[in-house]
Specification:
This protein has about 325 residues and is an all-alpha fold. Helices cover about 70% and strands about 0% of the residues. The chain is built from 15 helices and two strands. Strands 1-2 form a two-stranded antiparallel sheet. Its main location: membrane.
Length: about 325
């Protein structure tokens, strides 16, 4: 369960957010900004998946379907009907949320974790195959290109904001907004009665039901909220990268990457998926020079963390918690 932060922990989080917002003003390297944008996208993705799996206990392996649905819906509608991505992006989130409800309905009848995993994974494969087969519309693995970028606008006193491949700063701040908004939404839900109900369902569905918790309502809510956030991220990804293939947004390796980020950072925690996403995104890019061998290191790291640190890297922060206020409320001093 989410542990409240001590005052010094809140100051540390505020400082990290301030650094995140100020960074592009002092560091203009487009490659570094690109890595941080991807890290924020995957961190928000991992946080949304962790909300369903870590807090609600619904072991879904098909969340990349919502990412792909959001990406392709926003890209195709904005491209073919000349509608601004600012409008198609939130609608893509709603479409992904509806898809989440469709997937959640059969999952409600299943209590076996492996079967839930296979149903959700099968749904993602169906979406990927459909997007691959309908080449006339999606161009399949040849790639959907010509996706419009976000429309620019003018901020009084600051000047014109332009979204294009060469200018990363506007995308950076939009990614930061999605990232911080996703984290804030999950924190609010986890700290509310909704979070208590989901944790109760995760720990024992029978006990939760005996306490009057509506399992159907809360499971649907968890799926829909998580799918909405992931769909938004997929739409943003489409209008940022400007090129989509089914394998790039619906490939199983994407889901494995997000699961690995969450496991390495710490499943069932708030900061774990964020830490894991930044470590893995930047770490994998740093090892690009060794080619496919980096995936060997990536797999070995997952094995080591799962075997020796089942709570993830964030568990190391627990040792610093009483001093810096991370992870748990600082205990009052004995009189």
């Amino acid at each position: 369960m989410f542990a409240p932060l001590a005052p010094q922990g809140r100051l540390a989080v505020a400082a990290l957010v301030a650094i995140l917002l100020v960074l592009p003003l002092v560091w203009h390297d487009t490659y570094v900004l690109h890595l941080i944008i991807l890290s924020m996208i995957f961190a928000a993705f991992a946080v949304a998946w962790n909300f369903t799996t870590g807090y609600a206990g619904l072991k879904t392996f098909g969340h990349h379907a919502f990412f792909g649905i959001g990406a392709y819906f926003s890209a195709l509608i904005s491209k073919n009907f000349d509608i601004s991505p600012w409008l198609t992006t939130p609608v893509a989130g709603l479409v992904a949320a509806c898809a989440g409800l469709v997937v959640a309905l059969p999952v409600l009848r299943i209590r076996s974790v492996p079967h839930v995993a296979m149903v959700t994974l099968g749904f993602a494969e169906i979406v990927r195959v459909l997007l691959t087969v309908f080449r006339e519309t999606t161009r399949g693995e040849m790639g959907l290109w010509g996706i419009p970028a976000y429309d620019g606008f003018t901020i009084p006193g600051l000047g014109e904001v332009v979204f294009n491949a060469a200018e990363k700063v506007p995308y950076y701040y939009l990614a930061a907004l999605l990232f911080l908004g996703s984290v804030y939404a999950v924190v609010r839900m986890v700290k509310s009665p909704i979070g208590l109900a989901l944790v109760a369902i995760r720990d024992s569905q029978d006990a939760a039901e005996s306490l009057g918790i509506n399992l159907t309502r809360y499971k649907l809510l968890a799926f829909a909220a998580s799918a909405f956030m992931v769909g938004l991220l997929g739409a943003f990804y489409a209008h940022y990268i400007l090129l989509l293939t089914p394998s790039s947004v619906l490939g199983l390796d994407l889901m494995i990457l997000v699961i690995g980020m969450t496991l390495i950072g710490g499943v069932g925690t708030l900061f774990g998926p964020i830490l894991g996403a930044f470590v893995m995104t930047i770490g994998v890019e740093a090892m690009r020079g060794i080619g496919e061998y980096r995936m060997l290191i990536y797999g070995a790291l997952i094995v080591v963390v799962v075997m020796f640190m089942p709570r993830g890297l964030v568990a190391m922060l627990d040792g610093l918690g009483p001093r810096f206020g991370f992870g748990r409320q600082a205990r009052p001093q004995a009189e």
